[in-house]
Amino acid sequence: MRGLSQAALKEDGVKRLGYRLVGKLLSTKLVNRVVFMTMILKIWRTVDNVEIEAIAGTTFSFTFKSAEDQRQVLKGGPWSFDKVLLVVEKPIGKGDIQTMRFNKVTFWVQIHRVPLLCMTIEIGQFLGSMIGDVQEIGVGKYISVRVVVDVTVPLRRIL
């Protein structure tokens, strides 16, 4: 460690933060950390290994070896373990975990029974925005909308 300059240490820290995600299981109960860490790797099926560190309670740090694996995990969610939602966030700034809120999750929502006249991206945008922040829209047999939802706010039963 003595031979590393402050600039080299900072550069290494920034690089590691770039490939890191932080996740929190939304549960009041503690989980078996060893089982969680083993299972989440099997669920994610990344190309390279992922370093997992238990931070506190139900919060974990995930360090990826490639941006592609990290992107796959972010895009492939939502994730759950033992029927508990795992909220995964990319740290920003210096990566202060204390300031991370773990309240936003991306879901694919299917909207069925839409009249053919209304099967458009614009209607998908309109309906999806009633649920959350729209990320992607697909139109086929039904409208599919990828939305970011604040999991601390109850969902409305009817649009």
Automatic annotation (TrEMBL):
It comes from the Eukaryota. Residues 16-90 form the DUF4283 domain. Pfam families: DUF4283. This is DUF4283 domain-containing protein. It comes from Dipteronia dyeriana.
